Records
---
Amino acid sequence: MSRRPLIAANWKMHGTLESVQAYLETLVRRVPVAGPEVVLCPPFTLLPAAVMIASGSEVAIGAQNCHWEDKGAFTGEVAPTMLADLGIHWVIVGHSERRQYFGESDQTAAARAQAAQRAGLEVIFCLGETLEQREAGETMAVLERQSAVLAGLDPSHLAIAYEPVWAIGTGRTATTMQAQEAHAALRRRLAGLFGTEAAAALRILYGGSVKPDNAAVQLAQPDVDGALVGGASLDLEGFCAIIHAAPGGRRGAEE
Ligand code: 13P
């Protein structure tokens, strides 16, 4: 049983055709062989170009959201089957910005994740507490509630991203102790949902102001298996530095 580190870039609503081409053409050459798994999640409009450039390389492409139905009258939505049809391998689901601005709930996030897995996609499922919740001592209860809906998912096509909302885009990253504590609690929770063996194989990424200068210490924590990187991933050099900060090989509880 081992966990290969996973480093994912979430470009959010940033990027142009020109920028994704230049970025990816260099990134595919700079990703270390036998290093961490690397995923780039640009906006929907850039996905076809990204898939074409990354084809045959070590970089996988992911979307930032998908709908919970395969087709239908849902103006403005994108079905997971459409992403799979395009050659997309990953999708981010339940990001706190979706929860905060677009009415995403635990239930809709779970439905999207289930539909994504039915379409053959790998899911990065995001969760994390707000500052008010942390200060009220509710962090573990929030993580427990948010992770309850994972029960309906296939753990072998799933990664979890712990993204404390107060650390996203604020420059205020969680301390390594806060991250490790939350990740270890989540892994215990996942063991309850999926069994110890599946939980030991599941990757739990940290997200929230990951930068080249703090990535190595976060990624060295025993239960931090990768990073979901926002702002710092827009800069190719910064993202490459974060990739190189990840432990190269595989590691895990039962190596
Ligand atoms: P930042 O790295 O910009 O804090 O964003 C984190 C995030 O939300 C990744 O999904």
---
Amino acid sequence: MTTPTPDVLSEAEQGRCQEFFPTTANSIQNNIIHHLMSFQGRDPERSGASDIYKALAFTMRDIMVEKWIKTQKTYYAKEKKRVYYLSLEFLIGRSLSNAIINLGLWDEVKQAVEGLGYSLGEISEQEEDAALGNGGLGRLAACFMDSIATLKIPAYGYGIRYEYGLFNQQLINGYQVESPDNWLRYGTPWEFERRVPVFCVQFYGKVTTYQDEKGCFRTKWIDTEDVMAMPCDMLVPGYKNDHVINMRFWAARASRELDLTHFGEGDYIGAVQHKVSSETISKVLYPPDHNYAGQELRLKQQYFFVCATFQDIMRRYKKKNAMFDDFNDQVAVQLNDTHPAIAIPELMRLLLDVEGLNWEKAWDVCTKTFAYTNHTLMPEALERWSVDLMGKVLPRHLQIIYEINQRFLDQVAQQYPGDIDKLRRMSIIEEGYPKMVRMAHLAVIGSHSVNGVAALHTQLLKERTFKDFHALYPDRFNSKTNGITPRRWLLTANPELAGLINSRIGTGWEVDLEELRTLEPLADDPEFREAFWQVKLNNKKRLTDYIQLTTGVEVIPETMFDVQVKRIHEYKRQLLNALHVIYLYQKFVSEPDLELPPRTVIFAGKAAPSYWRAKLIIKLINAIAEVVNHDPRIGDRLRVVFLPNYNVSQAELIIPAADLSEQISTAGTEASGTGNMKFALNGALTIGTLDGANIEIREEVGEENIFIFGLNAEEAAFERIRNSRTPEQICRDNPEVAEVMEALADGSFAQGDRNLFKPLVDSLMSPHDQYLLIRDFESYLACQQRVNEAFLDQQCWLRMAVLNVARMGKFSTDRTIRQYANEIWGIPV
Ligand code: IMP
């Protein structure tokens, strides 16, 4: 045990901190200059925006670190139960503006920076996004951190410090081309690279048994290849509450011993190669891919961060505790999807092999510690590892998984005697060639809580994905509808709207989003609507400039900004949106006098590099844009834009400028979605299916303030089997649909090439299209017509938009995190 440090800062220390850390415009400016000179060696008079950005970031970090130390000491002083949020992804984006806002220093920093001859906007633009995540799951983790800090929950985020984040996307000739995201090229001012604690992580090797001093048989994992895990901390400030937590990201480093072995043998190159190969573990974030099977490096990443995290958890736990009986009174671990589920056998290994607990006790501690969040309904996205690979990389863990499985199946067999098929379905091991370890089953069996991320998602988990498990453990399943942090997604991203809201109802909503409800009467106030419209228009003008700059396409801010930004995937149905664009195009050409509101249809999103069909959808959208944007018959009535390289900071620009939010996934496929919440909070109206959290958004805003179309989840599931109307029949019945499909098939968007988009045509026309695009197309068209009519009545549209903002209270991550804390983690908030 290490000697504990005092639990609170002494008065003298507090005094020193107060003097040292700047909180006035003047002292902030001095601190920036100090950082410029002392740490960057720059002459303040000759520094550029990027130097100022770095110096300002260090200044903010200084302020945060003091608060962080105080926060941590309080945890020790009050012996708080701690929560560990394990996630392979944290999609952070930029940190500067968010930190300044959360520290409550916006005006002071603005003044300080302007005094140096810069605007704060210009300085913020210097920051590279930290894209340590692929999409929804990673961004959710980042929003959670903000709420956890704001609610003063003793928690830590744990993940990997990827040297390369999510790839950059360029569009070349309309095709997605990937390039590496070298975000640490110039370092990041936000992290603390720490030399302690550094932990050793084992891989490969073999398992042996021995008799300990008491004569008990114990297991040991030996002859392993070892890699060191070095912590890099990033601080997360709560909103104006002096509470600062940290995310700890592990970086892989070569182990010194092995280096020395190579050197000792005179093998200099070998030593260097060993170093390089060890460090590849944290080199790169795996891009979105629904099938990681067989990728050894990904399994190693998962174990690497889990193993280091648990050594850190144990280190902290052991400072104040000697026994493990109360472990789960002190520690809660939330698994963000199955990516960290190897933590279950890892904790068992630590308790059995290192701490010497018996199986029953260890298992009891383990299941009371873990909680698992599921994020997907797509069966192909459920993680599975081949038994052979697991046995090679983590032989002891495979043994433990087999033991967990055996004991679990004995219990199932007892409960359902003779039901062999149930045993087969529920087993952690999937029998087949090759045999696979089902990580989702391991996570359900090893946790006391399994949650879905929206009401429909949880219902479908219980009825479909985990039906057998739900029958066995009905109390284990619960729902936690996702949310978004209002600090980033309204206060930071849309300062004008935040300012307008503040001027009418005050600032309480910033920490209690339900307070937005008091805006409701203002939906009928013409003056407020006018101001609201002006804010939206200003945001649209900002986006218009950005579109012009990045794509060269001129768009008109007064047109309807119809936006779909998210990962490109068949189930999210960007293709359905593209078909509507073709339909509109044909309408504008064939009926030039038709009264339809002009639209700017905006897409953005990345496709998995290996997902060729999604990449072809990107090409199609760009091909449609090419034709539509250059057709003089269309005039200014329709524009199509695909913005390259979608990321968090681009989202912050796009979302406040949207009029219409496209949330059109096939019902029963999207777990929750959080983009849908961000748009509605920023005053866009949703066109969507009854999927994920759209259902709850409809409940909140009222069905008259949202545009819903298409099959529901039950109908969609039924339709896949029954196939009552095939795409071919629909085309026969509806000439408008047929005409759209004809244009897609005849090469109208491919310079006459009928083959380019044939794979998309074939899947759309297939009677087995599992995403049911054509089946929902007519309903989508009718719904888009309702959107057109509503948009033409500007006052009616504005009323609906204001009501959407006013009714978004439920979707704050503050609410989500309160539920996790109270109902899963055993930490009353
Ligand atoms: P950790 O919890 O050991 O990771 O340490 C995080 C921070 O908490 C340290 O930098 C200290 O400021 C504080 N801290 C660590 N151990 C103790 C303790 O035993 N008592 C009070 N504060 C501590």
